[in-house]
Each structure stands twice: as C-alpha cells, then as structure tokens.
Amino acid sequence: MKRSYLHLILTALIFLSVSQLSGQSFNRINSTKTIMETKDVHYRYIKANGLNIFYREAGPKDAPVVLLLHGYPTSSFMFRNLIPVLSEKYHVIAPDLPGFGYSDAPPQDQFEYTFDNLTKTMQSFIDELALKRFAVYVFDYGAPVGFRLMLANPEKITGIISQNGNAYEQGLSTGWNPIQKYWQDPSAENRDALKDFVALKTTQFQYFEGVSDPSLIAPETYTLDQHFLDRPGNVDIQLDLLKDYRTNVALYPGFQSYFRKYKPQLLAVWGSEDPYFLPAGAEGYKKDNPNAKVKFYKTGHFALETHVKEIGTDILAFLAKLPE
C-alpha cells in the first residue's frame, strides 16, 4: 500500500516536471519564432500615385516608424545592412523611388521625372500605408524628397537623420559645376555632356572616392545600381532629374526656414570625403537648428558601406530620445 502510494506521488511529480519543461520549451520556441519574425525583412509592393512601388519592411508593427529614403543612383538596397540594426526596436520601411530599383520606371511620356512628382508618389506611399508618425532618414536624392514631405507633413515628423543629404548651397562641391551649367543653359550639348554621369565609371567613383579601404565596398552595390541605370530609356530619365535638381536648390531657403521654425531633432551623419556634398552642408544644419547634431565619418558618399556599425549605433541612440 505504501509502495503504491509512493509510486503515485513520484509519477505525479515526474508528470508535473515534464509539463513544466514542455511549457518552457514551447514558450522558448514561440519567443524565438517571434524574434525571428521581427528580424525578418519583407519585400513588398504597393500602388502609389498609380505606380507599383517596391519597399523593404522589417521590425515590430507597433514600434515607432523609421522611413528610409535612398539617393542616386541606388535603391533601398543601400539599407540592407542598416535595416537589421534598426529593426530590433523600430518598424523600418524603405521604398524604392520611381525610376529606381524595383519600383516602376515608366517612360517619360507617362511620368514626369521631377522631384515634385517623386514626392507626390512618396506622399501617396505614406498615405497608402497610413503612416501617422515617423522619423525620416534622407540621403542624396532622398533629401529633397524627404524635406518636401517634411514641409507638407510637419505633424508626422518625429525626427530627421540626414546622411549626406544636403540643404545648403555651401554643401555643393565643384562636382556640381557641369550640372549647374546645364541648369543655366539646358541645351542639347550641355545635356549630352552629362551622359557620363550615368556611366559605370561614375557609379564606381561615387562608391570608392574618399574610401580608405576599398575592400569594404561590395561589388554587387555598383553592379546592381548600374544594371538599373542601363535599362532602356533610363539615361534620359536620370538626365531629367539632374535638370530638375535646380528646384531643390531653390527650395533650400524653405527647408532652412522649417528647421528654424520647428527645430526638429536632427542628426547629420556625414561621410566627410564625399566628392559631391561637402561637410559644410552638414554644419549648416547647426546654424538654423539648435537641436541638430553632426557626426562625421572619414569615408565617402555611401557612408553605410564602410561605417554601418558606427552609424547604426549613433542612429539608435538618436532614435531612443525621439517622441513617439
């Protein structure tokens, strides 16, 4: 009788132990699954302004949103190493602009390639995704698009990260001289003179110039960019955007006025050896906005290719202080 009673107690204890371990294992599996799903990068399309816009998305859906806007001649692919860093705590969204990457690139007679129209498409994009509040990371061409969005949606912007995203004339290097000549005289001769700007040698130049260790530049970066640049009709698309870039410079005073009025939390993370956008462009933010912080990295235009860990760490520290 005693043995039978003891056997029942031991059996019950073993069952409870196994149940607890199974529950813990199940919880661990579920927890791991949640973490993995959070870190996954999803590749999606959405209709915006009548176009199929490709975008990368990662991170918790209920976390603060960070919108990443790429520049020339690249796409959201430039953020492939930054997205995993940010998406552990933030909901990260990185679209390809029209005419770039995997988004639609309609011919010129079907879409006007101006920065106003790129912005119109991105406005439709954020409206379609119902983005109410977000921090915006702007780079190169992404800056005039992001700053136009900023002017139109001041209530949505929680903070600004500018990575070689210019808003000051003193930030333009002499590399812009041939382009400015085209602005002043948009002749066929001056337009043709800019065709080298979309050639492979120039794409590679943008990646390698100012970089102390060229072995850090992944070859698929400039190879993929050039693949899209070489699509039929794309040369004229890009030349149209180069011509229209003058409208961005004309808007610089408006952008600066916004910085003075709203004093947004702003972090400028800048490749100091950029051949197109000089450090003076980064310093300009501090003149208009007491909440602007500037950090330089000794690298070139595509600073994320060589300094993603440092830049990612600085961005996380910045985002942690933003309002939701």
From TrEMBL:
Signal sequence annotation: none
AB hydrolase-1 domain segment(s): 64-307
A Pfam family matched in the record: Abhydrolase_1
UniProt cross-references to SUPFAM superfamilies, sorted A to Z: alpha/beta-Hydrolases
Family matches, as InterPro entries: AB_hydrolase_1 (IPR000073), AB_hydrolase_fold (IPR029058), Epox_hydrolase-like (IPR000639), Haloalkane_dehalogenase (IPR051340)
GO MF terms held by the record: epoxide hydrolase activity
Entry keywords, A to Z: Hydrolase
Protein name: Pimeloyl-ACP methyl ester carboxylesterase
Organism whose genome encodes this protein: Pedobacter cryoconitis
Organismal lineage: Bacteria, Pseudomonadati, Bacteroidota, Sphingobacteriia, Sphingobacteriales
